[in-house]
Amino acid sequence: MKRLTLLSLVSLALCGVAVWTGGRLARASSRPVGNPATMHTVAPARPGEAAAAGAAQDDVYSLEQRRALAACDSSALWDWLKTSAHYSTVATDDVIRELLDRFGAEALSTALAIPEPEIRGLVTSKILRELAERDPAVALEILRLRRAELSLGAAYLVGNQLLETAGGKSADELIATYDVVHGQNLPPSPDRLDCPPGFDFRKALDHMAAAEGALPLMAPQLFREWGNAAPAAAAKWLADHAPERPWSVGTMDDPGDPVSGLISTIATSDRPERQEAYATLMQLPEEIRGEAWKSLNDSAGRRPLDSGMLEAATAMGERDGYLKNALLGTRFRDEPDPAWAQVPPEERAGLLAWEAAQWERETQEKAAPPVAEKIRAHWRARLEEQWRQLKK
């Protein structure tokens, strides 16, 4: 490591100030000065004015920060990253953008030479993320050729970022990116995909299933998109590739249960073939369907009654279980749920009778404290009154 000269120390100090304070002097000087005791007499800003003023100040700050960094010596910027990158996300991102403007992908080699592992991993990850936004092809080539030099975390994050980007273009782009990510023994599991019209989901899933020898890790993300675009086709592919037993809970090596996710997606779709899709999913082994609806019914207790999910539950023979869980979920909501109007009064009465029997059985096994009795009584009275107000 080169010896710091007096000049480089001064440069580092000045650039450190620039990084930390960038345009804040300009921003601070633009603030109104007044007597704090009388500040409350100032007329409030119209809606949107405060946000617009804040955005304008942020623009000034960003411009001043970039100007300050542009005047810094490159070695000083690297020295600052080596000692201070973990203190400020915004400042670190700005410094990395400046260095990438100067050196492009070559900045990665310098970052990989940072001696402190934590700082090296942080800076490397940020450089790769920025490169993936600027030039995905370059970032993908780095991942293919230099994977051994990258930390697992950095490689994993940039791989999934590149998969998200590729998924927004075409199936062929996604497959090419997938082959690199999967070929480097990285689990391909982006947070989400935003696939364009005409995306060939079948081609992508067929390719991944052949590569992994099982349901692909990316199946849930692809089904979320395919289930919206073509519910019946997505259901058919899943039914044709389902194992005999349920998928395990999702892990780094297992995508988990894709059936519940696909059902939820189809339930929100406005495509006319929803019923065909539900009929196709009924071809899945009973144990797989049961596990999927167990997950969906657990969620029903935490959300208002959903018309789409009620349609799905009815089509797949799970209406009773879905409504029971949705009923129990009303305990935690004070506001009436108008969606219950689509459930016939006699069916609602049957659900209340079921709840009463459940409560009696539970209290026979273990007496409920008086406060629980009062809470339940209040909930029942409130719910029954709300239901009486529903249109028959």
Structure description:
This protein is mainly α and 392 residues long. Helix content is 67%, strand content 0%. It contains 20 helices and no strands. The longest helix is centred in the N-terminal third of the chain and has 22 residues. The N terminus is likely disordered.
Protein topology:
Layout lengths: L5 H16 L2 H6 L19 H22 L3 H11 L4 H15 L3 H6 L4 H18 L1 H11 L5 H16 L3 H13 L17 H12 L6 H11 L1 H10 L17 H11 L5 H8 L4 H15 L6 H9 L3 H11 L15 H21 L4 H20 L3
List the defining traits of the structure above.
20 helices; mainly alpha; elongated; 392 residues
Low-pLDDT windows of residues: 1-14, 21-55, 249-255
Helical fraction equals 55-70%
Structural class: mainly alpha
- Estimate the strand proportion: under 5%
Work out the radius of gyration.
29 Å
For the termini, the CA-CA separation is 80 Å
Mean pLDDT: 82
Q: H/E element string?
A: HHHHHHHHHHHHHHHHHHHH
SS summary, helix count: 20
The global form is: elongated
Largest sheet: none
What is the count of β-strands? 0
Give a quick rundown of the structure.
This protein is an all-alpha fold and 392 residues long. It has helices spanning 6-21, 24-29, 49-70, 74-84, 89-103, 107-112, 117-134, 136-146, 152-167, 171-183, 201-212, 219-229, 231-240, 258-268, 274-281, 286-300, 307-315, 319-329, 345-365, 370-389.
